[in-house]
């Protein structure tokens, strides 16, 4: 039986890390095979937040004291600060996460097109407005990279560059949408 999970594994050579719940699998599917840019961004942001929470939890003796409901909720920005303090990730990764968070927040509060906002927040060195298809590529690439760096995705095997192989063989990431 061909499932979305199998398509992700065969096309992109990645899977969620072992022990990840089924709800996250559904979100991952929206990022990798969804066609709605807004949903891609929201689901990718949710996955990034979950990955950061998991990484922080691994370093804490009592993660429930930070993430439990008794003491309130931490915002994405608070979690990101804690992640940076605990892991000291490369500044490029931190900037990408901050930019992705700004993109998500802008989508929630502004009336501009998604492609314009992706152009503004995820492409720092260009004034060019991306087309909707280019914006999806930009979100996909940024999310893919960040989810792998945050250890939520596990690479299966790579022969050629994932981008080259998928683009050549299957119209990656959106078959028939070039």
Reconstruct the topology from this structure.
Blueprint: H1 4-12, E1 14-16, H2 22-33, H3 37-59, H4 63-67, H5 76-87, H6 91-109, H7 114-122, H8 132-149, E2 153-155, H9 162-170
Antiparallel strand pairs: 1-2
Comma- or semicolon-separated keywords:
9 helices, two-stranded antiparallel sheet, 178 residues, mainly alpha, disordered C terminus, Four Helix Bundle (Hemerythrin (Met), subunit A), single chain
Description:
This protein is mainly alpha-helical and 178 residues long. It has a single domain (4-170), classed as Up-down Bundle (Four Helix Bundle (Hemerythrin (Met), subunit A)), CATH 1.20.120. 65% of the residues lie in helices and 3% in strands. It is built from nine helices and two strands. It has helices at residues 4-12, 22-33, 37-59, 63-67, 76-87, 91-109, 114-122, 132-149, 162-170, and strands spanning 14-16, 153-155. The chain has a two-stranded antiparallel sheet with strand order 1-2. Helix 3 crosses helix 6 and helix 3 packs parallel to helix 8 (132-149). The relative contact order is 0.16.
């Amino acid at each position: 039986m061909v499932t979305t999970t199998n398509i992700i594994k065969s096309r992109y050579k990645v899977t969620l890390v072992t022990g990840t719940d089924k709800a996250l699998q559904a979100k991952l599917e929206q990022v990798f095979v969804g066609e709605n840019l807004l949903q891609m961004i929201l689901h990718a942001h949710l996955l990034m937040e979950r990955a950061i929470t998991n990484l922080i939890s691994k370093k804490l003796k009592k993660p429930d004291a930070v993430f439990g409901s008794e003491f309130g909720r931490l915002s994405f920005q608070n979690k990101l600060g804690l992640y940076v303090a605990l892991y000291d990730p490369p500044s490029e990764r931190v900037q990408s996460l901050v930019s992705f968070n700004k993109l998500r927040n802008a989508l929630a509060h502004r009336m501009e097109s998604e492609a314009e906002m992706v152009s503004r927040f995820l492409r720092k060195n260009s004034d060019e407005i991306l087309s909707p298809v280019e914006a999806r590529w930009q979100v996909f690439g940024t999310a893919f990279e960040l989810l792998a760096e945050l250890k939520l995705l596990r690479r299966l095997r790579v022969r050629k560059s994932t981008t080259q192989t998928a683009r050549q063989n299957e119209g990656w990431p959106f078959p028939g949408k070039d």
